Amino acid sequence: MHNPKAGDAEHGRKQLMAALAKAGHHATYQSTKEPGFKKALKQPADLVLAAGGDGTVAKLAFRLIDSGIPLSVLPLGTANNLGRALGFVASPEEIIARLEGGRKRVFDVGLATGPWGERYFFEGAGGGLLADYVHAAKKEEKNNGKTEKLSKEQQMARHGALLRRMLHDYPVRQWKIEIDGKDISGRSGRRASRRCRREDSENYGSFGRDRQSIWTTNFGGTRKRTRSRLMKSRSRSNRQR
Questions:
Q1: pTM: predicted TM-score of the whole model, two decimal places
Q2: CA distances (Å), 201 to each of 73, 95, 107, 123, 205, in order?
Q3: How far apart are CA 66 and CA 213, in angstroms?
Q4: SS3 104
Q5: Which single residue of 12, 50, 110, 114 has CA 20 to 30 Å from 234?
Q6: Sign of CA dihedral 143, 145, 148, 150
Q7: Where residue 47 falls among pLDDT bands split at 50, 70, 90?
């Protein structure tokens, strides 16, 4: 499952399929930019390989919940925060070469509830300035995308300018935040973040009501996962670790 707009020419469809074939895998290609990707995810498979950035991984992962099909990641995006957090820090070629000996792990999936309904999340959830900024940035990119082609440096400068404009007169809001059953409302985001890091769990999170398999490769030790509830979430009882 490939986002053709992610990465560079060295990791296009032809190159990725050749690398998979060289490693002995029988792969079927599907672009996530085409409507057929949803139907393709319902087809039997031993593994779904997400080639793209954080958005691509999330786009595929929530559709695989309870499917029994594990998901692996080829980090081709700009930030690749989720891929790095899950241990996918090697090059796409190295990850492909080690898929055969990869280990399957299970992690919980977050569920945010709001006026829009319910939405799964896999890396984190934000509100307030961050959420409004992301919405405004996407709207600005959509309005300017057809007429402007900007470098990554120009894009970052534009995002920084937009964030500063919004921050200048952004209203203060009262938030209720609960982490591991403890009310930390009124504390700064930095203190809350530090608390999360101190209370890291050996388990792969406690965010969700649903679980998803992740196919990992041996690129480092097991990372700890934060146990927190930043938005309304539900968890299943008696889950097998």
A1: 0.66
A2: 23, 26, 12, 15, 7
A3: 9
A4: strand
A5: 50
A6: positive
A7: very high
Cα distance between residue 180 and residue 206, in whole Å:
9
Find the length of the chain: 241
Say if residues 2 and 31 touch (Cβ distance below 8 Å): yes
Give me the pLDDT at residue 22, please.
Answer: 94
Report percent pLDDT > 90 for the chain. Answer: 31
Nearest to 93 by CA among 70, 72, 74, 80: 74
Please state, in angstroms and rounded to a whole number, the distance separating the CA atoms of residues 123 and 86: 10
Instruction: Give the domain ranges of the chain.
Output: 9-112+203-216, 129-168
73 DSSP β-pair partners = 50
Strands 182-183 and 178-179: what pairing?
antiparallel
181 closest CA partner among 223, 225, 228, 148: 228
